[in-house]
From TrEMBL:
Its cofactor is Zn(2+). It is found in: Cell membrane; Membrane. Residues 277-302 form the Peptidase M1 membrane alanine aminopeptidase domain. One of its GO terms (molecular function) is peptide binding. This is Uncharacterized protein. Residues 43-224 form the Aminopeptidase N-like N-terminal domain. It comes from Ooceraea biroi (Clonal raider ant). Keywords: Glycoprotein, GPI-anchor, Hydrolase, Lipoprotein, Membrane, Metal-binding, Protease, Signal, Signal-anchor, Transmembrane, Transmembrane helix, Zinc. It comes from the Eukaryota.
């Protein structure tokens, strides 16, 4: 009993000391909360994204380029957006206003904790629509987040906040936009994304590569953007709206999964009485994935 009283007394003394320490730190400002949210003075409207993943080489990188249409709601000298592990070419970063005038940032700041990049401009930017142009180099990660490479396949997992590893963006779920995605890859590989392919061009035949351009997505959050580059084969259903993507040796075994996916889609459409139609639904199995599956718009990726 004496030991118990002593233990309780020690606990009370420790708790009191901790409370005093926290209170003292609060007075000194050392416990100030970190604000991870972006300012609300800029709203993204549309992203044009070009990506070149190097999945055949061993450099584990990709080249990227964005032209992001944005609306500045309040006059500002700063633009804040997310970016992680992206080496941005500051020499070609520019902001073009609706009159075609070009504004170049004079300096930039980056916060490793919040993962927010701030572009600073000399002149005040009045409210209006602008296009932010940026070029950068990113990393094909091996931790199954962002754009990652596994078994000679490049794919994505952007939920909850990993789109910023693939392109500079306003990476908060409420900041929705439309997306045009273009991917350059070897002709022996296939690129798949949220939307059907709009067109392909051979880029002058350079090294047997091709650009695959996809249709514009509906308005959606950044974490729902998805794409893959692989040598998988496509197994379509009768009308080509439900496609299974897998290694060629597994194609004969994909029919059961395809039938289940097609029936599930029909049932959910009936149950929700939804009139929104996804133009196609691709189902793609990958050898490694940090989640059991990811329900991206038009492209579901499974382990």
């Amino acid at each position: 009993m004496v030991f118990l009283r002593l233990l309780l007394s020690s606990g009370l003394i420790f708790a009191a000391a901790t409370a005093l320490l926290v209170d003292e730190n609060s007075k000194n400002g050392s416990s100030e909360a970190v604000d991870y949210r972006l300012p609300d003075n800029v709203v993204p409207i549309h992203y044009n994204i070009k990506l070149i993943p190097y999945i055949e080489e061993d450099n584990f990188t990709f080249d990227g380029e964005i032209a992001a249409s944005i609306e500045i709601c309040e006059a500002t000298r700063n633009l804040s957006l997310h970016a992680v592990n992206l080496t941005i070419d500051e020499a070609v970063t520019s902001l073009v206003d609706s009159n075609g005038d070009i504004h170049a940032p004079t300096t930039s700041d980056y916060d490793d904790l919040t993962e927010i990049l701030v572009l600073n401009f000399e002149d005040e930017l009045p409210p209006g629509t602008y296009v932010l142009n940026m070029k950068y180099v990113g990393i094909l990660h091996n931790d199954l987040h962002g754009i990652f490479k596994t078994s000679w396949l490049a794919t994505t997992h952007f939920e909850p906040t990993w789109a910023r590893r693939a392109f500079p963006c306003w990476d908060e779920p409420a900041l929705k936009a439309t997306f045009n995605i273009s991917i350059k890859h070897h002709q022996s590989y296939t690129a798949v994304s949220n939307m059907p392919i709009r067109e392909q061009d051979t880029d002058g035949g350079e090294g047997g590569t091709v650009w695959t351009h996809f249709h514009t997505t509906p308005v959606m959050s950044t974490y729902l953007v998805a794409f893959t580059v692989s040598d998988y084969v496509r197994v379509p259903n009768a009308d080509g709206t439900v496609n299974m993507w897998c290694r060629s040796e597994l194609a004969p075994y994909s029919k059961l999964a395809q039938d289940a996916a097609e029936k599930a889609g029909q049932l959910l459409t009936w149950y929700t009485n939804s009139t929104d139609r996804v133009p196609k639904m691709d189902h793609l199995a990958v050898p490694e994935f940090s989640a059991g599956a990811m329900e991206n718009w038009g492209l579901i990726i499974y382990l």
